[in-house]
Specification:
Blueprint: E1 7-10, H1 15-26, E2 34-35, H2 47-57, E3 61-64, H3 72-77, H4 79-99, E4 104-108, H5 137-161, E5 164-170, E6 172-174, H6 187-200, E7 205-209, E8 215-216, E9 218-220, H7 221-233, H8 236-242, E10 250-252, E11 258-259, H9 260-271, E12 276-280, E13 289-290, H10 295-299, H11 308-322
Parallel strand pairs: 1-2, 1-3, 3-4, 4-5, 5-10, 6-9, 7-12, 8-13
Antiparallel strand pairs: 8-11
Helix pairs in contact: 1-7, 2-4, 4-5, 6-9, 6-11, 9-11
The structure holds NADP nicotinamide-adenine-dinucleotide phosphate (NAP).
């Protein structure tokens, strides 16, 4: 009989955490071997509670997909919460995992760890080579600390305790479970909502902030989940062969980007909104380009599966079922 590992998915109600649970189930992992706790049941910033949870549950593996996440506005307004909560969540989980015999852990970070002016596409070795984007610096610093926590525990306890803690850095993610908040959502959910509302109200046009020329990369959430499980399952020798002990993180992207104008036109097609799309060039654009170099992930055997149109169609269906009625 196969003994499946007991897996703790931290943040299982979030967009990415819920997709990781779905992915594990699709791959045949038994539901009873997946451990979850809601934020109310277990506040991951509380060290004693996290230690008690690990001591009681003794999971074999951990996917660390819990984080305080938000857009530019939230990051600017609550920088203390972003740095404190994310540092605490990571430090508590990594240390409690180590103390309770967890051999395998996957930490989820973000592309914002890279310097604001990193060469494009951004390679893993761009980490700590320059100043960060100031708006989300506290969040990015916490995410960099998460990578360094995993690396430091590996370096100190890897040999003696068989630790193998890994990190993945995804690009912009979208899909079912996304946040459609009117003032505080990422570009894809924001545009889905705006085009949908314009369609329903038969508005003649939609105006989008900026020139529409910046280029961005997007990853469907189920691809992120599948890539996470793939990286978790890689044999240690393979992982070590493609990483260095102080440069262990792996970018997760689909390898190509498109302009905001192209994105908006694609979303309008998916939503079936036929009004005019205009751009307000007096509003800020952000960086001209943000693309990950995902060749490390590709060399490790993972290529994204879901194309943008198929992903946007699934995201729009999720919006219609779970969000449109509540607007
Ligand atoms: N979404 C993206 O585009 C994107 C891009 C790159 C990287 N990522 C990374 O992927 C990871 C997951 O992101 P996501 O988009 O899935 O975020 P999300 O939807 O906001 O999910 C985060 C989850 O963490 C939980 N959580 C937060 N603080 C907690 C605490 N103190 N104790 C217990 N649970 C807590 C949240 O629960 P509550 O909601 O109840 O607080 C939520 O279920 C993050 O590390 C993020 O940096 C996401």
């Amino acid at each position: 009989m196969i003994m499946h590992p007991k897996i703790f998915v931290a943040g299982h109600r979030g967009m990415v955490g819920s997709a990781i649970v779905r992915q594990l189930l699709v791959q045949g992992h038994p539901a009873e071997r997946i451990v979850t706790r809601t934020h109310t049941e277990l506040d991951l910033t509380e060290q004693a509670a996290v230690r008690a949870f690990f001591a009681a549950e003794r999971p074999d593996q951990v996917y660390l997909a819990a984080a305080k996440v938000g857009g530019i506005h939230a990051n600017n307004t609550y920088p203390a919460e972003f740095i404190y909560q994310n540092l605490m969540i990571e430090a508590n989980i990594v240390d409690a995992a180590f103390r309770n015999g967890v051999k395998k852990l996957l930490f989820l970070g973000s592309s914002c760890i890279y310097p604001k002016l990193a060469p494009q596409p951004m390679r893993e070795d761009a980490l700590l080579t320059g100043a960060l984007e100031p708006t989300n610096e506290p969040y990015a610093i916490a995410k960099i600390a998460g990578i360094k926590l995993c690396e430091s525990y590996n370096r100190q306890y890897g040999q003696s305790h068989g630790l193998d803690y890994r990190s993945v850095m995804p690009t912009n993610i979208y899909g079912p479970g996304d946040n459609y908040h009117p003032q505080n959502s990422h570009v894809i959910p924001a545009l889905i909502r705006r085009f949908h509302e314009a369609k329903v109200s038969q508005a003649p046009g939609v105006t989008i902030w900026g020139t529409g020329t910046p280029k961005r990369e997007f990853l469907y959430v189920d691809d992120m989940a599948a890539a996470s499980v793939h990286v978790m399952h890689l044999p240690q020798a393979t992982y070590l062969q493609h990483t260095q002990s102080m440069l262990t993180h792996i970018n997760v992207g689909c390898g190509h980007d498109l302009t905001i104008k192209e994105l908006a036109e694609t979303i309008a097609l998916v939503v079936e909104y036929s009004g005019e799309i205009t751009f307000d060039a007096s509003k800020p654009d952000g960086a001209p380009r943000k693309l990950m170099d995902s060749s490390r992930l590709n060399a490790l055997g993972y290529q994204c599966q879901v194309g943008l149109v198929a992903g946007l169609e699934a995201a729009y269906q999720d919006f219609l079922i779970n969000h449109a009625a509540h607007t």
